[in-house]
Amino acid sequence: MKRFYLDGRWGQVHGREAGDGPSLLLLHQSPLSGAMFDPALPLLAAAGFRAIALDTPGFGLSDPPPNPASIPDHADALLTILDALGLTAPHILGHHTGALIAANLAARHPARVGKLILNGVPWLTPDERAHFATFRFAPLDPAPDGSHLTAAWAQRLRASPGWSNLPAMHKHVTEMLRIPDRYHWGFIMALSHDMTPDLAAITAPTLVLSNSGEDLYAASRRAAAHRADWAFTALDSGTHDIVDEQPGAWAAAVTRFLNS
């Protein structure tokens, strides 16, 4: 695996890649980074793909926009990165917040997407949107007694029912602590976007990928049922840390669709 920086709309964008062959761009859930795909990158590379995982601007090691940007803003900013990478129409996989960006890009710029994988689709009902709106939407200010550290841990515990992978939990809490002033931006942009028009407009061959233990499983099933022409695959159990929990099964589901 190698790392790189590219000049983007709001500054530098950090990424990592592995392998050669057809390109697969991977967009992470927020407030994480492209590091969420580290367990799968060598598997995707071994399957014959050039797997590229970006840090969304404002997350990981990528420079942030001046204010929380919208999903369409992030999709448009991604076009600059596709050009910098020399990618005309790569396959694109987006996980949770990344799925919103990927779907919006595919809906508005169909010529720039090969196959599309929406991994955990935030197509939320009003009740689901209200539930996620109860999560903390404020900076994580450092406290002299270190209580902000346990607050970050508690926040992710609440967002991860059924979790079992301690290294993954630790890794992803440290991602929150890397950007304490803006880790909550991902929730803001996700809950501010209605992806219904995007789902209707997508023309790319699409797979909805989920797993039965994750918090967007029901929403993902609804999205797949909404588009009868789309494929649907669900892995057993797991949480939204499925790439850490089941990297082999996850990568196999991805490559099976891309090779179909």
UniProtKB/TrEMBL annotation:
Keyword Magnesium in record: no
The keyword Hydrolase is annotated on this UniProt entry: yes
GO-annotated biological processes: acylglycerol catabolic process
One Gene Ontology molecular-function label: monoacylglycerol lipase activity
Domain AB hydrolase-1 span(s) in chain numbering: 22-157
CC annotations in GO: membrane
Keywords from the UniProt entry: Hydrolase
PANTHER family attached to this UniProt entry: HYDROLASE, PUTATIVE (AFU_ORTHOLOGUE AFUA_2G14860)-RELATED, MONOACYLGLYCEROL LIPASE
Protein name as catalogued: Alpha/beta fold hydrolase
